[in-house]
Amino acid sequence: MSRYRGPRFKKIRRLGALPGLTSKSPRAGSDLSNQSRPRRKSQYRIRLEEKQKLRFHYGLSERQLLNYVCIARKAKGPTGEVLLQLLEMRLDNILFRLGMASTIPQARQLVNHRHILVNGRIVDIPSYRCKSQDIITVRDKQKSRALIQNDLDSSPREELPKHLTLQPFQYKGLVNQIIDSKWVGLKINELLVVEYYSRQTKT
Fold first, then answer.
1. How many alpha carbons fall within 13 Å on the CB side of residue 134?
2. Which of 8, 72, 129, 147 is 20 to 30 A from 61, comparing alpha carbons?
3. How many structural domains is the chain composed of?
4. CA-to-CA distance for 139 and 117, rounded, in angstroms?
5. Residue 3 counted as domain residue
């Protein structure tokens, strides 16, 4: 299944807040949680919604998310925590968390259009996995910096995760360390996602 390009508020109403998907707020009076018609959800539905929340927030295809789950299973440590670390350390997500882009799709576009450098080299792969001590900078071009400046000016000045440092006047971000799970930018039960895929792949 390809990346979602349909109405974004429809997904927010069903799944809850997805800050990586859209920076816009729903219209006043809209019900994000569908609490007006509460229905008992099956365990499968609960696991499915957690999986969908993860997929739409990070802007992944179904195949991409499944691949990340398979990688996380083979790594050392709890599969759910490793999965979140893999997703959070993607270059497009790092740009979003630094405030250099208002959404993850916008960050992906910046990377695809070759506006971003990692350790002084252009990287045009949004899924590039950032590492500790990586330096993220914007190309020294007026157009590139103007695109970033708009988002730096408009992004709310929230506390950055401990694994990131931003130097806005230099258009530079630093990855201090691998992210700790408590700083993940999405309210998610990652164990349900792992459980969803373990049940889906059973033969």
1. 24
2. 147
3. 2
4. 7
5. no
Q: Which domain holds residue 46?
A: 8-86+186-200
Kindly give, in sequence order, each residue whose CB lies less than 8 Å from that of residue 149, ignoring residues fewer than 6 positions away. Answer: 171
Residues 110 and 143 in one domain: yes
Specify the residue for token string 């889906």. Answer: 200
Same domain? 139 vs 153:
yes
pLDDT of res. 160: 85
Is 55 contained in some domain? yes
pLDDT in tens, 39-75: 688 888 889 989 988 998 899 999 999 999 999 999 9
Can you tell me the distance from the alpha carbon of 138 to that of 171, in angstroms, rounded to the nearest whole number?
A: 6
pLDDT of residue 203: 42
Other Cβ atoms less than 10 A from the Cβ of 12: the count is: 21
**Can you tell me whether residue 153 is helix, strand or coil?**
helix
Q: Point out which residues pair with 137 in neighbouring strands.
A: 117, 172
Q: Are 124 and 158 in contact (CB under 8 A)?
A: no
Residue 2 has what pLDDT? 47
pLDDT under 70 in the chain at which residues? 1-39, 155-158, 200-203
* Six token digits for residue 41: 């959800």
